Amino acid sequence: MRALLAVVLALSMLLQGCLSGVVGAIDEVVPERRGVPGGLTLACLMDDAFTSMVVEIDHAPNHAPEASTVDLLLERLDEVCSKPNGITVELQETSFEAIDTWTADDVRRVALDTRAAPPQDGDVLRWHILMPAGTYEDESVLGVAVNAADIAIFGDSIDDSENILRRPSAEAIENSVAVHEIGHLLGLVNAVYVSPRDHEDKDHPHHSSNDASVMYWAVESSSLGAIFSGTLPDAFDDDDKADLADLQARDLEATDQLWTP
Description:
alpha/beta; six-stranded mixed beta sheet; 8 helices; 8 strands
């Protein structure tokens, strides 16, 4: 068991970043299955078991999401997920433990401690966003998806990424990063499936090669201000949406799912 735990820890350290897909050592002691980013894709896309959805946003003082970010998240999820009883957002100001530099396992642990209910809560699917103070261990990372239902967005890093001309603005960056990370929870791109469309960036796995897609790799990076001089992408492109539609129709096989119909 000690040898296995050491291997898990080593793997998790290797795969830190925006899409931290390894289930960390915390899962060795926590009975609830946490899964990988994309592990609840079918649960969101379909309404067989989960007829409504809640996005819980726990934020540190002075780190509440912009109203435009909340509205955009609801709009983008409603475009692709089948939830006849609606999708809502729950905002909660939270006093997180003092962490200046966050790791993926910090996000997993704090998310588990702070979430109001489990991801599969009766007929409600619950996804969870942390918006703490501090930065990620890779300071170029603006957001990270750590398992099937939990992501973190680092507002201090987003503020630092705003260039002197405010083009793009910190608000626009937050909008795009939030949708980008939700896209990873939806399994984009090729995280839990293999697309028949050639739109994954080979140099940046699980990201789009299209700079007009919100899943473009630079959206999550602090260098985005140098790449985008004006409007940031904040929507899934046609290939992203086609992948999700194929998954919803069961024309594509989804792997590593915590729930299947």
